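Anyone? Bumping this.
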Amino acid sequence: MKILTFGEIMLRLKTPEHLRIVQADGFEASYGGAESNVAVSLATLGDDAAFLTKLPKNPVGDAAFNELRRYGVDTSRILRGGARLGIYFFEKGSDIRPTSVLYDRAGSALAEADADEFNWEALLSGIDIFFFSGVTPAISPSVEQAVFGALKYCHSHGITVICDLNYRTKMWSQEKAQSVMKELMQYVDLCIANDEDFEATLGIHAFDGDMAHGIDQIETYRQGILKIQELYPNCKAVASVLRNLKTAEDGEWMGIYLKDGHFYESPIHTVHSLEAVGAGDAFAGALIHGLVHGFSPQKLIDFSITASVMKLMIQHDFNLVSEEEILRIMKTGETNVIR
Amino acid sequence: MKILTFGEIMLRLKTPEHLRIVQADGFEASYGGAESNVAVSLATLGDDAAFLTKLPKNPVGDAAFNELRRYGVDTSRILRGGARLGIYFFEKGSDIRPTSVLYDRAGSALAEADADEFNWEALLSGIDIFFFSGVTPAISPSVEQAVFGALKYCHSHGITVICDLNYRTKMWSQEKAQSVMKELMQYVDLCIANDEDFEATLGIHAFDGDMAHGIDQIETYRQGILKIQELYPNCKAVASVLRNLKTAEDGEWMGIYLKDGHFYESPIHTVHSLEAVGAGDAFAGALIHGLVHGFSPQKLIDFSITASVMKLMIQHDFNLVSEEEILRIMKTGETNVIR
Amino acid sequence: MKILTFGEIMLRLKTPEHLRIVQADGFEASYGGAESNVAVSLATLGDDAAFLTKLPKNPVGDAAFNELRRYGVDTSRILRGGARLGIYFFEKGSDIRPTSVLYDRAGSALAEADADEFNWEALLSGIDIFFFSGVTPAISPSVEQAVFGALKYCHSHGITVICDLNYRTKMWSQEKAQSVMKELMQYVDLCIANDEDFEATLGIHAFDGDMAHGIDQIETYRQGILKIQELYPNCKAVASVLRNLKTAEDGEWMGIYLKDGHFYESPIHTVHSLEAVGAGDAFAGALIHGLVHGFSPQKLIDFSITASVMKLMIQHDFNLVSEEEILRIMKTGETNVIR
Amino acid sequence: MKILTFGEIMLRLKTPEHLRIVQADGFEASYGGAESNVAVSLATLGDDAAFLTKLPKNPVGDAAFNELRRYGVDTSRILRGGARLGIYFFEKGSDIRPTSVLYDRAGSALAEADADEFNWEALLSGIDIFFFSGVTPAISPSVEQAVFGALKYCHSHGITVICDLNYRTKMWSQEKAQSVMKELMQYVDLCIANDEDFEATLGIHAFDGDMAHGIDQIETYRQGILKIQELYPNCKAVASVLRNLKTAEDGEWMGIYLKDGHFYESPIHTVHSLEAVGAGDAFAGALIHGLVHGFSPQKLIDFSITASVMKLMIQHDFNLVSEEEILRIMKTGETNVIR
Amino acid sequence: MKILTFGEIMLRLKTPEHLRIVQADGFEASYGGAESNVAVSLATLGDDAAFLTKLPKNPVGDAAFNELRRYGVDTSRILRGGARLGIYFFEKGSDIRPTSVLYDRAGSALAEADADEFNWEALLSGIDIFFFSGVTPAISPSVEQAVFGALKYCHSHGITVICDLNYRTKMWSQEKAQSVMKELMQYVDLCIANDEDFEATLGIHAFDGDMAHGIDQIETYRQGILKIQELYPNCKAVASVLRNLKTAEDGEWMGIYLKDGHFYESPIHTVHSLEAVGAGDAFAGALIHGLVHGFSPQKLIDFSITASVMKLMIQHDFNLVSEEEILRIMKTGETNVIR
Amino acid sequence: MKILTFGEIMLRLKTPEHLRIVQADGFEASYGGAESNVAVSLATLGDDAAFLTKLPKNPVGDAAFNELRRYGVDTSRILRGGARLGIYFFEKGSDIRPTSVLYDRAGSALAEADADEFNWEALLSGIDIFFFSGVTPAISPSVEQAVFGALKYCHSHGITVICDLNYRTKMWSQEKAQSVMKELMQYVDLCIANDEDFEATLGIHAFDGDMAHGIDQIETYRQGILKIQELYPNCKAVASVLRNLKTAEDGEWMGIYLKDGHFYESPIHTVHSLEAVGAGDAFAGALIHGLVHGFSPQKLIDFSITASVMKLMIQHDFNLVSEEEILRIMKTGETNVIR
């Protein structure tokens, strides 16, 4: 089974430690973005994953390309050209101080790419699963159009489509997001919806917006999940991460998965995170891994949420954790020094 | 409204991470000191703040000067000359290991300055509020004398005097502190007293000295605060930060403010701090900001304590947090990633 | 005498040491750009210098703003707003490996600013000297238009205009540059032309393009300089830096200055540079400083070229060298440890 | 009283922060190993401690040698020669992610040393206490033989032998460990046994292996400790650290000490550790210090466990904490900034 | 054309800047080794290059594997297993202080691999060129045997064999080297011999051992090169780098290439190197690239030596320089800032 | 033979790379000072060297103490107590930019020590050679007095006194220096005089002050050296380093040694230094080493100057170079990679 994920990878510039941008005289550089993170998760878990984007032919584009290759992602379908790589600045919060992300992604090679640069027949050749998140169509109208092209091709060629709704308030309005995502959902076979995604991208009320009480609202979430399946019958399964968040680091996390009319729910993990980004992508990557390897629904959701919270303990965007490590945490919760 | 703060800024040499000084082969360099921190808080909050000190005419003095200028403090009244910039070494603790400060400030340009180098008529021209903390008169007899000069000028020219009692056990004895501070308090319009300050600088018993139970002793604090007003009728308001401290990072913080015979008390913030210095200065800075902008007493104390605990999440001495950020934390307690 | 410089300041992201971008997992961050560098030179030399640009209202824009303030530049005329701060990536070469600059400046706040956002009457109030380089009109058509607005205002209000022709091949073609710069030169009172600037911006042949033999072609340069004055009678003086460059670090540098029909030429400095950027801006800054302080033409050119080669020994974009230090190098060439 | 500890010191290569080895492009280098850590603890506490090992005559061996000397350990008995210094790679965990140690110690100078290179008569001359841990005999058969040589010499010359059983699953099997350690225990005067050491090295069941509930099983531990004394009558005292571990950082720690048929138990310390290695060695070092200085059994165990948890707040392997600091923590639990 | 290189990649631990190992408290970590460096050169130049070695299945082995993949090397033939990755410590010299390399490679996964783990039929399937250096057979007897296996298979299946004689005095004696390399040379189609390689590995006197005068002895070198062809008629071409070295950084470099009885010689490059390792491997990589792309003999040697001296300006082991960059240096020697 | 050196060790705070102090947000921390550097040189060369100073009992004093111990210096005679450790800030120059040292040493523990804290009978017990430099008596009147005490004791007890005149213009005037040093010279057995030392400390004209032409004035130097012996008959030998300095890094160095009426002169070393401090101390250390080991006068001066220029290639203050390494450089000048 070969998976293709489609989206944007950016240069991530993080200040050292918890410095504010106005204090920093250097940035840690890494590369990440929702769909590339999913591809790296899959490659790290041992799957055959390719990533599709467009990268500028300059050293910054090369560095992003190499970083994907370094972690075993198939980069052979990536388009090269265009002006620049998108950037995001990252200030890591602490306790009551929220982590802050500043996008500088306008005018990126992918955003400026024409929809017809994507020859889906070639790009999807040999692909079994196609993944994208709601970030991708939000990038630009032409990328939105490209996503439609991909989904239609998948739909007519039996390629499974998995979508993480992944709403980004800094990228588009709820109105705009809904007008696009509702349409795209017609082609989606499995959908991941977290937190505000229900409302923002599909207009379904599942969550009152208070991140401190996501898990406490599990019943509303269940209703929201059922509503998705009701509205989008092509969508055969829905997964979701629920959270109670207390500080920038402390929270409770659980996964819920609706399949064949049954809800499978993971235990609640109480964690203090090291760097709270990429957990949703890690969840998606683990979920696809489990689907590819035929995990039972209960194992699937347990594995996915464990992978997701393990990501909270890994720096940068990629969830560089092996299947063996995830399974060990699931089993023992062992945290003593391994020596 | 223009504010002048008067005191010493030092070179702060912090070991990387939590290294002991004997382990470190480098120091992070920044600049700070109570009154300069207050000035930077004010400038960051958008106020017109000047800082007064004496800095050596050498590159280390220039660097301190530039750092103030960088964050928008008016440096035009700073005296230049003298031998050296005071230094403090900083070892960041962890849990049961206390954070440790080693002063190397003897012989600094300010400590060696003559009282008559300070031409208060010129230095206080255009100033509406004058701020100093108990650290300033503790620096040297000549600086103590200078403070008296300033306060007398303020008193006779209608400039509001705000003082953070700020006792430092490594700088002077309680006996010496009381002999000076009791005198200075005659000229103070608003006073900030925390923890041991009551006893050490004014001989008022408000706290048993156990940092683990400051908030638990709120009633004694209230009595201490009332006692201040009783003894120093010129002092029209008193503010205080109360804390229960559990470890080097974990604690509960609240603010209390006496004005016109009424106590205004903030909610209790339970926090895990990133770097527990400068919170008192952040409190003072926010308090002055609120006074300048006519905040209601309740908003004033809520805003000040929120600013203070936000500082616990910022590295180095300066509280580089905007008014908008403080208000957002006050309102929502929102800690999810902002993106 | 107050100087205003107008142009773009960018975030500069340099790889550590000599790493290639594809090797680096971090960047040193500083801020610079031709005209901001000139303003910092002037402030460091003790002059009253303001910088004009447009900066985004976000932490990256704030950091650029603060960095200027830190070094004493008057930032009160800077416009705030727009989308992003321009960036340039910097890879430091070595010997036969050239230093490489990768611009990522499209869509910057300044580039997108409308010409009529610049109210020249207000912005030039109290200004005696206006400086810009050829980079500024190359940024965008609206900035080009703004430059015309400024020059016309200066011309009619007796403000001296100084221009460093400063051709950037990655920003515009020679054809486009000439069509603009020839027009702007009508208003220029003093012009700095280096290397390829003669040909690229004014169509005057002074240099065969071989950086290894600039000084060797001094006679052609002299002709080129005379030609400038012939073509642009408003331009009362011309200065130029001539170089023989052997490697990325090694070269010979000299200055030449035409004033009142006489050529003043500095000695040749043979240097091994630490970081070969910003030397032209340091030359311009020192030249303006000398003009403001009435240096004799010979001292002016000697001082300017010494400041310029001193910049080669300073990291980042700004020439943080005092007048005293430059004069000491001019006099003694003393390089022993100062202790 | 002079103490000699015998074992291996290694180069420790830790990734920065919490990076995975596959992410890191650098390592923090320090030096450590159980018995060297004990020697440094003793020297830091003011005792006369020597360390015995074999180090290669190359710069890496020199660096380990110097690091011991730096912290006051007597290095005059160390053998020089052999091929390489053992290495261990260290990845610091976080919350549910365990800290991970990767040994690269095969073929080290000590492992390859012949037993007869150790002239115990000379090496133990002037020594009052000999300390080793279970790691030492696990290094290689020849080192195991050397340990036997040392213990026999000590036994017949009245030198006290102290052993921390210290089982390492990556170094030898329980079967092999028991066959050696049971024999060595005949010569041991005081024994430290923690967690799985009872079972793994002596075949005594004291702990079900679940690190989350060590303290909860205190009664079984007490039985295990009594069993040690029953089986090894030469062993006049037994000390043990009991722990409930919740995450990679959070846990409860207590000490227990059996002497003259009486159990002395410390309070339970609830801590969030900074770097959870070397705490057992810190415990052993403090215990020996207390024995040397005639602490009462209750003070001994309280001091030792406090030293041990203080180590959790210190980076690298060595417990660089003075007796005064330990006593202050024991007394007050004071964690406010010391200034 | 597909190239396979065979040898060992090691973890390289370099002290920061020029620190001595005894001063350093950290190491920069990268990965390199002669044959892996050649593979990366080829991949960077756009060729299809695979690397063969054996890597341990642990995070350090993974990191080496990933680093190769990052730069585009085909890692699909690499064996996994064994105990450890070889290490080399690196201290960068300066002027009269030589750069120093300390090997810690004994017991590596490759050294311990059995010769029959290498199934040459599978490993060489689809390969056109096989490259190894004299380092590979020096690793261990079993690796030596594996090399013989590979060469015999190549010889009988028309795969071109290229060998860089690459003598390492710390790995084997001249006597041992000659006994092996003379035998292996029977199968070599193109040979690279530098400096002492002639004497040490083939017993041919071409150089008096004085690195300060290699180029000065060009005539002896020419005789040595002819002698190689005379003794090993299978060897159809010989290439060599000649050097005059003045300091750890300063030297003159030239290439010489014997093909069809004619000597092709490059210009002499006078360079000041940044980090003088890997230049020989860069030469070999460029040479193979030129052969694959049918460069004329003169262009071949000019290109190879230029690539080699460019490597002197790149940090770490890999020559991350594109064909375009090498050609630009060959043509212009241009070293001005590219912007 | 046991050597005692007496003087001050300071905390050295160097900006990273070549940053100006006003640019740096961190300092590299190391420890050094003329006489401590000599002690470390001797210990590194294998000699029995002790260092005498007074260090504060705080972590910064401990770190200096440990650093000496780390490199094998006998620290048992060091006094502890006093207020602070002296500091010096260090900005590394480049080419025409001089390296700059900013002292912050006033009020140090040593400077404030009373002369009678030094019990010379105990401190000099077992000592064969006593070394100090002209920096020591310049520290304070009480230290000057202590030096007199030491020299008188040495003189009457047959302990050899070696003095490096070592004039520091920032510490005392030539007038003051001469009044002290001329007196002290009565007791000196071997004297080292460099550059301006002749004039500044002894009033002997040997050098015109132009560092670019020291070697060129060798004849005047020879006269100066002879003059020393003439004026101070107790001084049986004089050594001197002569230099032609071209830039902050480039220079020519040679040694000259007068013994028994004969001048021994080393070859001239042309070097490009990495960090030009401590070379004089390295010279003194090597000279004492050679005297202790009975080197012939010619070998002595050759060895000493080679050690001195090797120091130019080592970072920080200490010359961490072995006798073997110095001898290898003396013999071969070999600078190729050692592997």
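Late reply, but here is one note on the structure posted above: Chain A has one domain: 2-241.
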